Amino acid sequence: MTVSAGDSIPDVELRTMTPDGPGTVRTADVLGKGKVVLFAVPGAFTPGCSNVHLPGFVQNSAELKAKGVDTIACVAVNDVFVMDAWGKAHGADDILLLADGNAEFTEAMGLVLDGSGAGLGRRSKRYAAILEDGVLRSIDVDESGINLSTCSNVLLKL
């Protein structure tokens, strides 16, 4: 079942790069406090994710923060090393990059994309969500393309 507005964010262990190397975080800890913008992409370094989706959040991170956002986070079904390299390649210093390598968070959200027909395996659907203290205030899922989950759309909702 897919999560919806009013639901609490699932508490799952994910990986992120720290100054000391790969580390683990709980989603309840990093997404469960304050106002959070969470967006998900099918895969780091893929064309739509690298050319459109992530750059919008990188370019508008100051505007999101000015609207009261405490944390901007991106999750993908990739490993922590890929997420770290992708963030560095795009100057995503203000974005918390979360690696959901086993798709556990994506499954808990009910937003698995079956990309096996294209050789991609299980991935995350593309979405953007606004959370307040761990509760989904809104979530927009793109079933194709990149429209509802853009940073410009998120800014309209804040």
Structural summary, described in words:
The chain is an alpha/beta fold and 158 residues long. It has helices at 27-31, 47-59, 61-66, 80-90, 104-109, 151-157; strands spanning 13-18, 21-26, 35-41, 71-76, 96-99, 112-114, 122-124, 126-132, 135-142. Strands 5-4-3-8-9 form a 5-stranded mixed beta sheet.
Count of beta strands: 9
Any idea what the shape is?
globular
Low-confidence segments, ≥5 residues, pLDDT <50?
none
Taking the sheet with the most strands, its summary is:
5 strands, mixed
Rounded to an integer, what's the Rg over CA atoms? Answer: 14 Å
Q: Alpha-carbon distance between the termini?
A: 26 Å
Oligomeric nature of the chains: single chain
Strand content: 25-35%
Helix and strand string, N-terminal first? EEHEHHEHEHEEEEH
Give me the secondary-structure category.
alpha/beta
Number of helices: 6
Spatial order of the strands in the main sheet?
Answer: 5-4-3-8-9
Give a brief rundown of this model.
Strand 4, helix 4 and strand 5 form a beta-alpha-beta unit.
Output the keywords.
single chain; 158 residues; alpha/beta; 5-stranded mixed β-sheet; 9 strands
Fold blueprint:
Elements: E1 13-18, E2 21-26, H1 27-31, E3 35-41, H2 47-59, H3 61-66, E4 71-76, H4 80-90, E5 96-99, H5 104-109, E6 112-114, E7 122-124, E8 126-132, E9 135-142, H6 151-157
Parallel strand pairs: 3-4, 4-5
Antiparallel strand pairs: 1-2, 3-8, 6-7, 8-9
